[in-house]
Design brief:
By secondary structure, the chain is an alpha+beta fold. The protein contains 2 helices and 4 strands, in the order E-E-E-H-E-H. A 4-stranded mixed sheet has the order 3-2-1-4. Strand 2 and strand 3 (24-30) form a beta hairpin. The model has no long low-confidence stretch (mean pLDDT 94).
């Protein structure tokens, strides 16, 4: 089975969950989102993948770009997205 790497990101007291699949960002959501579990189930089923807590290059880059965004130093993101 394929895998969706997940990483927990916290900024300004807010926690997010980030996910990547095959070197593309496929998930960014508030950890406390009401629909988070439903979104995660749909994503897992649609990609035929299971979630693994594992930091990878896409997730590290996403966290870096989010840090820059929240610091007011970035307006556009360069992360490859899986829509």
């Amino acid at each position: 089975m394929k895998k969706i790497n997940i990483f927990y990101y916290k900024k300004n007291g807010v926690e997010y969950i980030l996910g990547s699949f095959e070197n593309q960002l496929c998930l960014i959501d508030l950890l406390t989102s009401k629909n988070r579990e439903r979104v995660e189930r749909r994503l897992s089923k649609g990609l035929h993948a299971k979630y693994i807590e594992c930091e990878d290059a896409v997730l590290v880059q996403t966290a870096k770009e989010l840090d820059e965004y929240f610091a007011g130093k970035r307006e556009q993101f360069d992360i490859p997205l899986l829509m």
